[in-house]
Design brief:
Length: 256
């Protein structure tokens, strides 16, 4: 087991697996269930799925697809997108998901994180914080696939979500997402300094060196990766893959 978790974060849209750049222009990657089969063979430790349109369009999760995914997957799963009630979270847990990822509902359904954490435990709730830089150069939180902005700074918002009951923070830099330019280390460091729960850095990973940098300098407890594990390389075709475990262990620590 790696000391630092490396989590493929896979985007769903209309039943297909896609990949965006800065939350725009979703490109078709393939069938989510077939992708799960490949990650099973690669012995990935954990997977995260996010429906990028469910909350923005006010839709429930795609239950039929999620059932196929859980039936096929051999590893711990988390899911986000359209999780707006305790009943939805409970249905996901009953299907086999270990954690729910909540972003938009933190604004539209105040108290939902606390409610889910009270019933299922804080370890079952990941609070997602999406961040973009505004025209003044300041970090600004966003929700609903980046279409709505929040008032709090990312570090204060993370602390508030932790206080409500979030067991982890999934921190995504919209500016870096899908760009291969590396994580926003400064943003990550500001959030990790504000909370005691694990922070999963997401957005921009292009190399193993980027992972090591955000862990060592940003304080991230885990990294979520997208483009790196669904493409052959920057500007190249689709290839579902995962870094060699020996190399990950060397860079990030832990046994392969």
């Amino acid at each position: 087991m790696l000391r630092v978790r490396v989590i493929p974060c896979l985007q769903l849209r209309d039943g297909a697996l896609v990949k965006t750049v800065q939350f725009k222009k979703p490109a078709y990657i393939g069938d989510p269930v077939n992708t799960v089969r490949i990650f099973n063979e690669l012995e990935v430790d954990e997977l995260a799925f996010v429906d990028i349109e469910a909350s923005r369009l006010g839709r429930e999760p795609n239950w039929a697809l999620l059932r196929e995914i859980t039936d096929e997957c051999f590893m711990p799963l988390s899911y986000g997108g359209g999780v707006a009630s305790l009943a939805t979270a409970e249905r996901l847990f009953n299907m086999g998901f270990e954690k729910v990822i909540i972003n938009s509902a933190t604004l539209t359904t105040p108290g939902l994180i606390a409610e889910i954490a009270r019933v299922f435990g804080t370890q079952a709730v990941i609070a997602a914080i999406d961040v973009r830089t505004n025209w003044l150069g300041r970090a600004q939180t966003a929700s609903h696939s980046g279409t709505r902005t929040g008032d709090m700074t990312p570090d204060r918002w993370a602390a508030a979500l932790e206080a409500e009951g979030a067991g982890e923070i999934l921190l995504t830099s919209i500016d870096r997402e899908g760009t291969w330019r590396g994580f926003d280390v400064r943003l990550t460091a500001s959030v990790t300094a504000a909370v005691r729960v694990p922070v999963i850095a997401h957005g921009g990973c292009g190399t193993l060196a980027h992972m090591a940098e955000v862990v060592q300098q940003g304080g991230a407890s885990a990294v979520a990766v997208g483009s790196l594990v669904v493409y052959q390389g920057q500007g190249l075709g689709v290839l579902v893959n995962f870094p060699e475990r020996d190399e990950l262990a060397r860079r990030l620590g832990g046994a392969a």
